[in-house]
Amino acid sequence: MVRTRFAPSPTGKLHVGGLRTALYAYLVAKQNGGQFLLRIEDTDRGRFVETGTMNILQSLYWAGIVPDEGVVLQDDKVSQIGDKGPYIQSERLPIYKKYTDELLAAGNAYYCFCANERLEEVRQFQQKNKLPTGYDGRCLKLEKKEVEAMLAAGENSVVRLKMPKTGETVWNDLVRGVVKFKNELVDDQVLLKSDGFPTYHLAVVVDDHLMEISHVVRGEEWVSSTPKHLQLYAYFGWQPPQFAHLPLLLNADKSKLSKRQGDVAVEDYCAKGYLPEAIVNFVAFLGWNPGTEKEIYSMDELIKDFSLEKVSKAGAVFNVEKLDWFNREYLKRLSSNEVTKRALPWFEKSDYFKDQKLKIKDREWLAKVVVLEKDRVITLADLPQAVKFIFELPGYQKDLLIWRKGTIEEVQKILPELKESLNTISIQDWNKLILEQKVGEWIKQKMYSTGSVLWPLRVSLSGQQNSPGPDEIAEVLGKDETLRRLDVAIVKLSS
Hints:
By secondary structure, this protein is an alpha/beta fold. It has helices at 16-31, 52-62, 93-105, 116-128, 144-152, 200-210, 226-236, 266-271, 276-284, 299-305, 320-333, 336-349, 363-373, 383-386, 388-391, 408-422, 432-446, 450-462, 470-477, 479-494, and strands at 3-6, 35-38, 69-74, 77-81, 109-112, 158-161, 168-173, 177-182, 190-192, 215-219, 242-246, 249-250, 316-317.
């Protein structure tokens, strides 16, 4: 069975790069009828963040990437499901100790007692002399009795991988093709730290094997570590999984995507009102190209069409303008009721909702308000400000009421007549279709130009240079408020 995993470290909020890794791993599992697992790699205790796991889970669930096994959300709490756990590495320390002892007993790993100061001196010497950087193997030369004596004395130690220094490590990467490394350039990596916690390199191999992971999808920064991992698989006599190393995510200037140039956490985009469907669709294209002109993909369509073979080796630029395009497209496709439901939290946070005089009448009415701007905004968070004019007429200058080369005298004549005509329409008939019809007939009867009537009407109702059509606005405002706003405009013109 195809089994993939996403194994983030809980060091803060989930990065969009992590979301892409999780998405690709999820798609590979689902398109093969397999299982997607979430494991938490929390062995770096210095960078551990208490809320990190919850943030990762909430971000994944928000995006619709729900684990079949491992660390999950149950009743809004972090939980674990499956028979291959624990799925949180800090709960697996005895397992890592067992396999470390096996490596030591077989002579495939060794104790290292070098202090950090010595390691730094070695590194500086290597850099100064333009040598490959890495551990120089000093403790590998220690006699067994020396090691035993130092351990008995309680000297600080770590356990290192004994990497062969001849030959090559070769594997066929599902994204990068055939990859080769000379073993002499691969460091004797620390496997078990002095605090008893494993490094990523030991834990990831042990966990992926015991959890029967068939495909490892991860970022390209782990390419250089793969020879160490493959050597561990060989030492243990285990079949390694297939590897797929994804390209970096880049800023517009081709630098590595980072907080310094904008938001990088999934939570940030959620808070800004981006739709999860848009984020998932956008992230899927950060490296993957289906080879067609199609750009809008549902999750089910991604599961059907995605393939690691069509993921590029080159870095993918995180283009926020493209993300905005995706989000607008998805907003257009949602019903007004669905957009209203999703936008409600942003409306409730808006300043004008705190004023008791400006409460929403009902959800159905708010949906009509939302329709006015849902195809024009970028995110859900933009909606409250975009439709604020419905709740509160903005202040505007009377010159804004004048259509192109028209005159103030012309508008002073038209608006009172138009108000009188609108007043004859009953409340029962007050909808945009009838309003459009009646106003159109009135314009023809009066022989006015369309712009000279509709422009000042729209400005009167919106108080803005750019806004939806006057018929749409009038329907949402209702007859009384429409006539009141026309009165405001008429008074402005006479001042």
